[in-house]
Amino acid sequence: MLRCILRAKIHMATVTNANVAYEGSITIDANLLKETGIIPYEQVMVSNVNNGERFDTYVIAGRAGSGEICLNGPTARKGVVGDQVIIFCYGYFEATEVGVSKPKIIRLDSNNRIMNG
Fold it and tell me: In the chain, what are the domains?
């Protein structure tokens, strides 16, 4: 049996842009993706801390080092610049794999830079 388990999390990212004219998705700084192991076009769930919105979308890699977190297309209606969001990425694991590895969780400061600890 496969179980859906948290694989990676970007905690308290700050939305830097919202572009309703784009096709859809969330753009995330490529460095943050690399650190968490999330890949372009992978599905993520986003939870907006400011307004309680939760939605699923896919990832587009932003410019490395930019700190970019951009809500694109319809997701741009789910938050505004300055909102804090938590980005979750789940994976399917065999029951024997559950508990063997821990999710990669990064915590960000207000400039979307990884904080130590």
Answer: 2-95 (2.40.40.20)
Per-residue pLDDT reduced to its tens digit, 80-101: 999 999 999 999 999 888 888 7
> For the range 108-115, what are the long-range contacts, defined as Cβ-Cβ under 8 Å and sequence gap of 24 or more?
108/10, 108/11, 108/12, 108/13, 108/14, 108/32, 110/14, 111/14, 111/67, 112/13, 112/14, 112/16, 112/29, 112/32, 112/67, 112/68, 112/69, 113/67, 114/32, 114/35
Residue 47: active-site member: no
This prediction has a pTM of: 0.94
The one catalytic residue in 22, 41, 47, 58 is: 58
